């Protein structure tokens, strides 16, 4: 997503462990409640399963499990965020991100954004920091959750 520094950023806020994150609304297709998923035996622990989204099979990743090694809790605030991701050939595909602690959307003003000053090769999905109502939110880039290895594991390529 290209961010316009002159406009507010609207984002869905969620938790990973005790930290708060924001996924830009421009990167969302839809927010779904926690659904029963088709299980995929013998896959990575962070692959929650597959759901049927309007006739399309959508792989759902447990972001808590991917980042912390602990799966999302099955509670009311756990949601599945549907987001487009790019395949290597440039074709977009839908990916589901299961996240905890979804509290709604926020309006992030451009002047509240800060560069973290830290880059992690193992976490390229981490974006800028937003100072919002007394807490720090880290912007997430969903396209960068998948490494080349995980893209192949999830068969995002036809």
Question: Your description of this structure?
Answer:
The chain has 158 residues and is mainly beta. The chain has a single domain, classed as Beta Barrel (OB fold (Dihydrolipoamide Acetyltransferase, E2P)). It has two helices and ten strands. The protein has helices at residues 63-68, 148-153; strands at 9-16, 19-24, 30-33, 47-53, 56-62, 79-86, 92-108, 113-114, 126-132, 135-140. Strands 1, 2, 3, 4, 5, 6, 7, 8, 9 and 10 form a ten-stranded mixed beta sheet that branches. The longest helix has 6 residues, at 63-68. It is globular. The two termini are 24 Å apart. The model has no long low-confidence stretch (mean pLDDT 86).
Write the layout of secondary structure elements.
Blueprint: E1 9-16, E2 19-24, E3 30-33, E4 47-53, E5 56-62, H1 63-68, E6 79-86, E7 92-108, E8 113-114, E9 126-132, E10 135-140, H2 148-153
Parallel strand pairs: 2-10, 5-7
Antiparallel strand pairs: 1-2, 1-7, 3-6, 4-5, 6-7, 8-9, 9-10
Summarize the structure.
With 158 residues, the protein is mostly beta strands. The protein has one domain: CheA-289, Domain 4 (OB fold (Dihydrolipoamide Acetyltransferase, E2P), Beta Barrel). 8% of the residues lie in helices and 46% in strands.
